[in-house]
UniProtKB/TrEMBL annotation:
Taxonomy of the source species: Bacteria, Bacillati, Bacillota, Clostridia, Peptostreptococcales
Assigned protein family: Belongs to the amino acid-polyamine-organocation (APC) superfamily. Spore germination protein (SGP) (TC 2.A.3.9) family.
Name of the protein: Uncharacterized protein
Main location per the UniProt record: membrane
Protein's membrane topology: Multi-pass membrane protein
Residue stretches spanning the membrane: 21-39, 51-73, 94-115, 127-145, 157-174, 194-216, 228-253, 283-303, 315-335, 347-367
Compartments, record wording: Membrane
Keyword terms of this UniProt record: Germination, Membrane, Transmembrane, Transmembrane helix, Transport
Amino acid sequence: MGIIKLNGGGEWMNESLTNRQIAFIIFGIVVGYGVLGLPKNVTENAGTGGWFSLLMATGITIIFTYMITYLGYVHEHKTIYEYSNMLVGKYITFIFMLIYIIYYFMLFTMIIRMASEAIKLTVLIKTPVWALCSLFLSVVYYAVIKRLEVIGRICEIYGLIIIIGYIVIHLAVSTQGKLINLKPFFVVEDIQSYLKATLVTIFPFLGIEILTIISFDKKKNNKRIFKYTALMVGFIGILYILIVESCISVMGVDGIVHYKDALFATIRRVDIKSLEFLERIDGIFLIIWIMGMFCTASIEAYGSIFLMSKWFKNIHFNLLAFIVILLSFIVCHIPKTVNDVEKIMDYLSYGTLVAAGFIPATLFLITKVKKYDKKTK
């Protein structure tokens, strides 16, 4: 088990996790908000060949996952704050950290708002959004102050429930679909469209940048960590394909493109009378989806607060977390409508190309050029 220690100046030191916890942290942050609009985005851009675009996106994500894992493994006991200072200097690191802090803060804030709106529209119609946001943020705050190891354990437990739930639900949904809706499986003439669609289908995979704030310990995280992280991303890709294909089989390409929340719309259409407890699976799905949103919001909130704690070392972590959560409550009510929130999420999805792609790739190349991997052996 990872233990949080204090150094002489009272500063919190970096925490480490087991290989399995790191893998489930990836699952917890990646499989969250983006899954609702996944079928629409994939189908709109690649049609019934969306499975191929998802495979391509999975492969690209695995490459970037390897880079970020490599940075943590080579720079042992360091997070991006420490090894970025070492590689590019404090001024560029300041810009990098500012990007990550704003990015994580806005992501978890908007996700809380979206989750609250979804809960209000589906089960708690008379409950005001501000009350749901308050409840969500209170639980996130409690998880954050318990630190990364506890969040990792939560992701392990919730992750297993979410995985089992999604697989059971979408296999059940598939039984209600039609094979004809999935055809043609692949059209050679559309290969260019499939490749272009990869740029869109890669967004639901983003979240892997959370690995930059996890401190690796080679006693705990041996070389098998590369296998754990790559296999988890590969599994997420397969799960996404199952989700998209099951939705297409029920609604067809022409039906899916008319729904922003195509996944939820598909599940609400399905009634499985032969399975009593699954006759209305939309309620079960909503519970599992909320669990996923909680994992995503908790990890992103921790990421923002953790990086801020590197700057504000004289402020206790719990107090800093309270200030950030309070600020999040204020900011999440600034957008007036759900459409405004969705526009912000769209902008943030493009920003993740910097957080998950450009910055880690730059630090990876510098690490290779300066041969830090040779020095640490």
